[in-house]
Write the structure tokens for this entry.
Amino acid sequence: MRQNIAALAAGSLFGLGLVISHMVDPLKVQAFLDVAGDWDPSVAFVMVGAIPATAIGLIVGRRTGHPLLAADFAQPSERRVDARLIGGAVMFGAGWGLVGYCPGPALAALGNGASNTFVFVAAMGAGMAAFRFFPFARHTRVA
């Protein structure tokens, strides 16, 4: 139960941060990615602000040796860079650049009620289902 409450609190704080930083506005994100055009560098401040927060979390985690609400830290099972990893990163980046959404901000933006957000989330769900059910995803274990 404590894990669920912590997850709800962390997710709510993350969503609030996305809204405050305007990361739920695809035009803002696309303007940041448009370095050759009308570039908007303000999204860089979001990233710069995330670095110290992440660093503090990593330092605390290393010192305690385990998470507060779990037995162990979840670590990726694969460490090699392969075609699937590169292909997935390219697809993620292309989708983010073309549409202006990535998964977290898209879910937070559902509250805005924009039809393009619902279309993106539906397409994201279809992609997740394809990963689970088609053979190209079966050679590695998915938790």
In short: The helical segments are 2-20, 26-33, 42-64, 83-99, 103-109, 115-133. The mean pLDDT is 86. The chain is about 65% helix and 0% strand.
